[in-house]
Amino acid sequence: MSRVTTFKLYDKYTLIMINDNQSNQLPLNKIKARVFFLAPSYLNLYKEIVCELEKQNYEIYTVSDIIFRFDPYFKDSRFKKMKYICIKAISRRYWKRMIRHKVEFNKQYDILFCVNGYSIDKILLNHLKKKNPYIKCILYLWDSNNYYNFSRNFHLFDKVITFDRIDSIHFNIEYLPFFLVDKGQNEQTNKYQICFIGSNHDDRYWIVKNIVKQLDEMNISYYIKLFIPERKPSFRSKIRYLCYRLYSSHYIKKIEEWNLIYGKYIPSFVTNHLFSPQQFSHVLNESFCVLDTDRECQSGLTPRLIWALAANKKIITTNVDVVNHPFYSSDRICIIDRNRPQVSYEFINTPINNECNDFMQELLKLRIDNWIETVLRFDVINEAYIY
Hints:
Radius of gyration: 22 Å
Shape: globular
Distance between the termini: 40 Å
Largest sheet: 6 strands, parallel
Oligomer: single chain
Order of helices and strands: EEEHEHEHEEHEEHEHHEHEHEEHHH
Number of helices: 12
CATH architecture of the largest domain: 3-Layer(aba) Sandwich
């Protein structure tokens, strides 16, 4: 039976993800455990987890982990003292309303599985624990604590896992990179010598712009798309732009970024179309090499890098921490300086040495069925990933 995921607007802030078979409970003798799953809806990555949980006979109820307005826990947030007051009231009112009106919040659960948990609050945790005294609470982070203050909630969970190796050392928590999904053997055409698909943040635009220029000069075929959503400039942003223009010699980059964000300047590699993981996978199969750029504040490996390795692709990345992983090899992964990115023509055009593929055994640990078992395992010490 096919599984369809739909979305229901609960209120102006809340998008609830509901599977069509959530109401059709499995026979009791087949249910492994009941899971309350709180996860971001970004790029629909949560769907792969839901699908695998259902395959493994977990009964699952899924709620979107939203980001509240005025959230002060982002590391670059301003006016934090004022926002702390607002966010406490907003968060508690939100979860109290959900608990009061959603019958699923008052059912029995064995596991709370939370990804990131931007919106998590003691109100929800206390409610679930009151209803389910033996519930196990698990937090998996696919963003870094340098980006958002997740550590404030670590004490609320029985188990905390992170995709960021440096965070795992600093907070003494478990380390597990992002999962990969085995889609079987797809035809590898190498239509493009290098590809990149990603959203714009940090200094990614400048890295991609610099590399595209080099690829054009070297006559290297590529498929590169940087996602920037359509936005209309606010009155305040227009004033800021006028200030940039007044002192244009000092704000050349700021002016270009403003024109880029508000659609006044659209390079060929920029798009306002958001690509799905399936579309990325299609382009990946048509490419020989993958460009990967991470957030400067984090060391965690991006899904793009993990999936590219699993697809037997070469990788050019700005993530310097990749050298600390067992699957790193200089003939397969090239690290570039994010401030002065230089693409190697030789690296892109040298065939992959498939005789050295021992790293595939390490990637097998990240296949989503094994990944899920590692995340939900409590009875033994987690030996999932050794670096």
